[in-house]
Specification:
By secondary structure, this protein is an alpha+beta fold. The chain contains 1 helix and 4 strands; from the N terminus they run αββββ. This is Amphi-Trp domain-containing protein.
Length: about 100
């Protein structure tokens, strides 16, 4: 397993319904505890832990055209072989309505 660096990067355009389906699929995989992103030799398979550190950020960006950007970063510690390590951080500031 690669120790550092980008394992996968992807970008696509979705309708609101397609994005909702993508997020629902991710949520189902998180509940199951495993997640595979990508395909064939470029796929990344992950076992997921019970707890995560999550950071969310919303900002306006863009030079010529103003854009709204929502970033969600989900982090967890792993062994060198990719096995999740237990971790626990307090949750704060997260309300989705």
């Amino acid at each position: 397993m690669r120790k550092h660096g980008k394992l996968l990067k992807s970008q696509a355009t979705f309708t609101r319904e397609e994005l909702a389906e993508l997020l629902e699929g991710l949520a189902a995989r998180v509940r199951e505890g495993t997640l595979t992103l990508g395909e064939n030799s470029g796929k990344v398979e992950m076992d997921l832990p019970q707890t995560f550190t999550v950071e969310m950020e919303v900002q306006n960006t863009g030079k010529r055209v103003l854009k709204r950007e929502l970033e969600m970063e989900i982090v967890w510690p792993i062994e060198p072989d990719g096995t999740p390590l237990p971790g626990r951080d307090p949750r704060s500031g997260f309300v989705v309505t």
